[in-house]
Automatic annotation (TrEMBL):
Pfam families: Pect-lyase_RHGA_epim. This is Glycoside hydrolase family 55 protein. Residues 1-23 form the signal peptide. GO terms for molecular function: polygalacturonase activity. InterPro entries: Pectin_lyas_fold (IPR012334), Pectin_lyase_fold/virulence (IPR011050), QRT3-like (IPR039279), RHGA/B-epi-like_pectate_lyase (IPR024535). Keywords: Hydrolase, Signal. Residues 213-432, 564-622 form the Rhamnogalacturonase A/B/Epimerase-like pectate lyase domain.
Length: 925
C-alpha cells in the first residue's frame, strides 16, 4: 500500500517470480593477490600445525572420514529441506491452520545429524588435516581480490604489489599496525543492573580462560574454543529464551579462524572482529551445519523448535568479519543463518562463497529464514547460488554489494516489507527474485512489499524475474526508486516469458509494479511522477536523481586509547545502583569532536537531566545503559528529560552509538531522550544502533511480578511520558533505533507478557533534514510515531506494534495519561468522532500520525496490531483495532510507499473519516 498526496495515489502489495539463467563472466581480474595484514604476517611466518597422533593413524583418519561423510550427506538433506520449508512468520494467529501446517512440514522433513562430541572431533580432525595440506601447497590463505576491486572496496585490504596500491583512506590506515581500541578498553565492563560481577561481559576468543583459547592461525580448528568463549559463565543459550543481564562482547583478534561446525551466536551477544585488521572465519570442507554463524539453533527432533523465538530474538551484532565458506561441501550451506528480531545488525562483513558453476553450487551468502528485523549494512557477498536467500517480517538493508551468483543475487521467498537502499547487484543471471523457487513449499509463502532505492544493477541477464497474475498483484507491490542500469539485458520478465514493456534499460526514475488504486484498481506497471528530493536530504551522487544521504555507524578505528575518555575514569560505576549522574557530566564536560566519550558495559543510574554538549561523540559496549531513576522523573504534569542532547539552537557534531536508554519503576514524567542539536554539516549529528527499552528486564521493577498482563493498568506500571523527542530546531540521522515498551519479561523463563504503560513513542517536530533508516517504535498508548509539523524527512522501513493490553475500557487510549494529552504538539484526542468503529476499536494507540508535514517520504512501513487484551484471534479477522495511520489533511509532499498493516480494519484514515480498508488489500496467503 502506498499513498502519494495530494494526488490520492494508493498502491497495494506486489509479488515477483524468478527464472534461473546460467552463465556470467567474472566481474574482476583476480590475478593480483590481495591480502589482509594478518594474512601477510602468516605468509611471512607460517604457523606450525599442531602434531596429532590421530593424523598419523590411518585408521583414525579413515574412521573420521566415514563418520563425517555420512554426516555431511545427512546435513545436506536437512539443509535442503530447511531451505525449501522455512519456518516463516504467519499473518494468522499461532493457533491457525497455516501455523500448524508449518509445524507439519518440519515434522515430515529429514533430521539433521546429531553433533555428538565424537562427530565434532572427527570434523575438526579432518579440518586440520586439510588445512595442513593447504599450508603445504600454498593455498591456505586465499586472496580476496574481489573485495578490493568492487565499486565500494571492502575495508583494510590491499594489493600485494606495494607499487600498485589502490586503497581507500581506511585501507591506508590498516597498514599502520594500529590496534583496535575495543580490545584495550572493553575488559572493565560489567553485566547490566548489578548482575553477578563475576560474569565476564568481554571475551577474547583467544584467551585461554575460555575453553582453551582459539588460535586464529588457520590450521587449528577453533570451533570448540569459540563456542566455549560464547557459552562461558552460563550464557543464555539452550533452555534460555532471553536475558537482559547476560550480554557479551565476543572479540576476535586478527587471524583466520578455522571452523568445522557452526558458531552459535547467543542472545544479547555482539560478535566483533578487529576493525583495522579484519579476521576471517573459514569453514572447512568437512563443515557440518547450515550457517557458519547461526543466530538460533534448531533443537533436534523437536518439530522445528529452536532455542529462541525468532520474532523476539533481540540484541545482536555481527561486525568486522570475512566469512569464507567456499571450501565447504555440505549442500545449501550459508555464511550466516540469520533469524533475528529488532535491535540487531550485521555490518562491515564480507562473505565469500563458492564460485563453481552449475546446479552443484547451492551455497548462500545469507539465509534469512524468518524473524522480525532488523537492520544490515555495508556487506559484500561474492559467489554462491544466491547472495541472500530467505525472508523476514520487515527489514532495512543498506549498502550491500552482491556479485557473481549462479542463480540470483537476492531471492526473497517471503516477506511483509523490505526496504533495500544502495544495492550493487552484478554478474548474475538475476538481480532480484521474489518467489520461493520451491513453489508451494514453505506454506505457500509469497513476497509482500519490496522497495528498492538508490541502487545499481550491472551485468545481469534479468533485473527482476516475476510471476505476474491478478491474484498476486492484489497482494504484493514492488517499488523501484532511482535505479541505475548498466548491461542489464531485460529489466523485468515474467515466468511465462513475457517482458514488462516500457521500462528504460539505462535507468529508472520511479516505477511501481503491482496493484494501483487511483480512482479504481489497475494492474501492471505504474510510473509515478514524484517531485525532486529536498536538497538537504541528498548527496552529490546522481543516478536518475540524486541519492539520499547515508552514513555508516562510526567505529572510531583510528582513535588511540589516549583519545578515549571512559566515564569510569571520572567516577562512574555502572552497577545499576550507584548514582552516576555527576560522574557522567564530568566526563561529558571534556568532550570534543576529536575524542570519544566511552561507557564500558554496565547500567549507569541517572537521577537528573544529563546534557550532552553539541560537540560530543559517545559510544557504549554491548548497549551500555543509561537508567533513569528517582522522583525527579515522577511528575506527569512536569516531565523531565533524562538525556538532553544539546540545547535549543545548538549546532554541532553529536554521534551516539551502542547505547540503551531505560528506566527503573513508575516514572510518568520521564522523557528518555530529547534531541535539540542541529547538524553543523550533513549527517554530523545522529544515533546508530542505540535503543530504548521501558520495563520487562531485570532491575527495572517493571517485570511480571509488578506488572502482570492484566486490566486495569497498575499505578506502579505507568512508566514514562515519551521515549524520543526530536524538537523543532533539531535534525539528525537515525539508523537502527528501536523504541520498545516491553510487552513481555525478557528475564522470565517463559517470556510472560506484561502490561507497562508509556504515553508516547517518537515525536518528530523537526524541519529537517532527517533520515530514519531501520527504526521501530512499539507499544506506547497514544502513538508510536508522530510527525508533527515535520519537514524534509526520509524514513526507510518504519515498524510499529500497538499495545497488547488494549480493547478494554480500563486500558483504552489515552489511559492513565488523559490529563497530559495536549502537553505536546500533535497529541491525539480520544475519543474521536471521525472514527467509524466501536469505542474499544477506536480508542487505540495510533501507529503513525502525519500532521502538518512537508516533504515527508516513508519508504516502507510495517504497522501491526496483534492482540485485543492479549487475545490473538482478532488477527484472523483483521479487526484488532479500527485505525493505524492518520492523515490530518494538512500535509504537502507526503509520500507513503509500500504500507503493510496487520490487524487493523483501516490502513489509512483521514480527518474526514474516509479510509482505505485493509481487507481488500490483504495478501492472499
Amino acid at each position: 500500500m502506498a499513498l502519494s498526496r495530494h494526488k490520492a495515489l494508493i498502491l497495494c502489495t506486489v509479488f515477483i517470480y524468478v527464472m534461473a539463467v546460467l552463465g556470467k563472466a567474472s566481474l574482476v581480474d583476480t590475478e593480483q593477490p590481495v591480502y589482509f595484514q594478518h594474512q601477510r604476517r602468516a605468509l611471512a611466518n607460517p604457523p606450525i600445525p599442531a602434531s596429532s597422533q590421530r593424523l598419523q593413524n590411518a585408521s583414525s583418519v579413515n574412521a573420521a572420514e566415514n563418520l563425517v561423510t555420512a554426516a555431511i550427506v545427512k546435513q545436506g538433506a536437512y539443509n535442503k529441506h530447511r531451505v525449501a520449508n522455512p519456518r516463516r512468520n504467519a499473518y494468522k494467529s499461532k493457533t491457525s491452520s497455516s501455523a500448524a501446517h508449518l509445524i507439519e512440514l518440519d515434522a515430515q522433513g529429514p533430521a539433521a545429524p546429531n553433533l555428538t562430541d565424537e562427530l565434532r572431533a572427527a570434523a575438526a580432525l579432518l579440518a586440520e588435516r586439510d588445512a595442513a595440506e593447504q599450508l603445504a601447497n600454498g593455498t591456505l590463505h586465499k586472496s580476496y581480490a574481489q573485495f578490493a576491486k568492487l565499486p565500494r572496496p571492502f575495508l583494510n585490504i590491499y594489493n600485494d604489489d606495494e607499487n600498485k596500491k589502490s586503497r581507500s583512506l581506511l585501507e591506508d590506515r590498516a597498514t599502520s599496525n594500529s590496534s583496535y581500541w575495543v580490545a584495550q578498553l572493553s575488559e572493565n565492563g560489567r553485566p547490566s543492573m548489578g548482575y553477578d560481577t563475576s560474569y565476564p561481559v568481554y571475551r577474547d576468543v583467544t584467551n585461554p580462560m575460555f575453553g582453551g583459547g582459539a588460535k586464529g592461525d588457520g590450521v587449528t580448528d577453533d570451533t570448540a574454543a569459540i563456542n566455549a568463549a560464547i557459552a562461558y559463565g552460563g550464557n543464555c543459550g539452550e533452555n534460555c529464551l532471553s536475558s537482559s543481564v547476560k550480554g557479551t562482547l565476543i572479540y576476535f583478534p586478527p587471524g583466520t579462524y578455522l571452523i568445522s561446525t557452526p558458531i552459535n551466536a547467543y542472545y544479547y551477544s555482539q560478535l566483533v572482529g578487529d576493525a583495522n585488521d579484519i579476521p576471517i572465519i573459514k569453514t572447512s570442507a568437512s563443515f557440518i551445519g547450515l550457517g557458519a554463524i547461526q543466530s538460533d539453533v534448531y533443537i533436534p527432533n523437536d518439530n522445528g523448535n529452536e532455542w529462541y523465538v525468532e520474532q523476539s530474538n533481540f540484541y545482536r551484532q555481527v561486525r568486522n568479519f570475512v566469512i569464507d565458506i567456499s571450501d565447504t561441501t555440505t549442500a545449501n550451506a550459508a555464511g550466516l543463518h540469520w533469524q533475528v528480531g529488532q535491535a540487531t545488525s550485521v555490518t562491515n562483513v564480507a562473505i565469500s562463497a563458492s564460485q563453481a558453476s552449475g546446479d552443484g553450487n547451492t551455497q548462500m551468502g545469507m539465509y534469512t529464514e524468518n524473524g522480525s528485523g532488523g537492520f544490515m549494512s555495508d556487506v559484500t557477498i561474492v559467489g554462491g547460488a544466491y547472495g541472500i536467500y530467505g525472508g523476514n517480517q520487515q527489514y532495512t538493508v543498506r549498502n550491500f554489494q552482491i556479485i557473481e551468483q549462479t542463480t540470483a543475487c537476492i531471492c526473497l521467498i517471503w516477506d511483509w516489507g523490505w526496504t533495500w537502499s544502495g544495492l550493487y547487484l552484478s554478474t548474475a543471471p538475476i538481480g532480484i527474485s521474489l518467489i520461493n523457487p520451491q513453489g508451494s513449499a514453505g506454506g505457500g509463502a509469497i513476497t509482500g512489499s519490496t522497495y528498492v532505492m538508490d541502487s545499481q544493477f550491472f551485468d545481469l541477464t534479468v533485473g527482476l524475474d516475476a510471476a505476474f497474475n491478478k491474484t498476486i498483484l492484489e497482494s504484493s507491490i514492488i517499488t523501484l526508486d532511482n535505479i541505475d542500469l548498466n548491461a542489464v539485458q531485460t529489466v523485468v520478465t515474467y515466468a511465462n516469458g513475457d517482458v514488462l514493456e516500457g521500462i528504460p534499460t539505462t535507468g529508472i526514475d520511479f516505477v511501481v509494479i503491482g496493484n494501483v488504486e487511483n480512482d479504481g484498481s489497475n494492474f501492471g506497471q505504474f510510473e509515478a511522477s514524484v517531485p525532486d528530493r529536498p536538497s538537504g536530504l541528498v548527496n552529490s551522487v546522481i543516478y536518475d536523481r540524486p541519492l539520499y544521504y547515508t552514513k555508516s555507524r562510526p567505529q572510531y578505528e583510528t582513535l588511540s586509547s589516549s583519545s578515549i575518555i571512559s566515564v569510569k575514569d571520572h567516577g562512574a560505576v555502572g552497577d545499576g545502583v550507584t548514582d552516576d549522574t555527576a560522574a557522567i557530566n564530568s566526563a561529558l564536560a571534556l568532550a570534543t569532536t576529536e575524542n570519544l566519550i566511552y561507557f564500558p558495559a554496565g547500567s549507569y543510574i541517572v537521577t537528573s537531566t544529563i546534557i550532552v554538549p553539541a560537540h560530543t561523540r559517545m559510544t557504549g559496549s554491548v548497549w551500555s545503559q543509561l537508567v533513569a531513576s528517582g522522583s525527579y522523573f515522577a511528575d506527569a504534569a512536569s516531565p523531565k528529560v533524562m538525556l538532553q542532547v544539546g540545547n535549543s539552537g545548538d549546532v554541532g557534531t553529536v554521534e551516539i552509538s551502542d547505547m540503551l536508554f531505560t528506566s527503573i519503576g513508575p516514572l510518568p514524567g520521564l522523557i528518555l531522550v530529547e534531541w535539540n542539536v542541529q547538524a553543523a554539516s550533513q549527517g554530523s549529528v545522529g544515533i546508530w544502533d542505540a535503543h530504548f527499552r521501558i520495563g520487562g528486564a531485570y532491575g527495572t521493577k517493571l517485570q511480571v511480578a509488578q506488572c502482570p498482563a492484566s486490566s486495569p493498568i497498575q499505578a506502579g506500571c505507568i512508566a514514562a511520558a515519551m521515549m524520543l523527542h526530536i524538537t523543532p530546531e533539531a535534525n539528525g540521522y537515525f539508523e537502527n533505533v528501536w523504541a520498545w515498551v516491553a510487552d513481555h519479561d525478557i528475564d522470565d523463563a517463559q517470556n510472560t507478557q506484561i502490561t507497562v504503560a508509556v504515553a508516547r513513542g517518537i515525536l518528530i517536530e523537526s524541519s529537517g533534514p532527517n533520515w530514519l533508516y531501520g527504526t521501530a517504535s512499539e507499544h506506547s498508548i497514544l502513538y508510536q510515531y508522530n510527525f508533527a509539523n515535520t519537514s524534509n524527512t526520509f524514513a526507510g522501513m518504519i515498524q510499529t506494534e500497538s499495545p497488547y493490553y488494549q480493547f478494554t475500557e480500563a486500558t483504552e487510549s489515552p489511559g492513565p495519561f488523559n490529563s497530559s494529552v495536549g502537553m505536546y504538539s500533535g497529541d491525539p484526542i480520544f475519543p474521536d468522532s471521525t472514527c467509524n468503529g466501536t469505542a474499544l476499536l477506536c480508542n487505540f494507540a495510533w501507529a503513525v500520525l502525519m500532521q502538518g508535514t512537508t516533504n515527508l517520504t516513508i519508504a516502507g512501513a510495517g504497522l501491526y496490531s496483534w492482540y485485543d487484551n492479549y487475545i490473538e484471534t482478532c488477527v484472523d479477522t483483521q479487526n484488532c483495532q479500527q485505525r493505524l495511520v492518520y492523515d490530518d489533511g494538512n500535509n504537502g509532499g507526503l509520500h507513503l510507499w509500500n504500507l503493510v498493516t496487520i490487524g487493523s480494519v483501516e490502513m489509512i484514515s483521514d480527518y474526514s473519516g474516509d479510509a482505505i480498508l485493509a481487507k481488500p488489500n490483504t495478501q492472499a496467503s
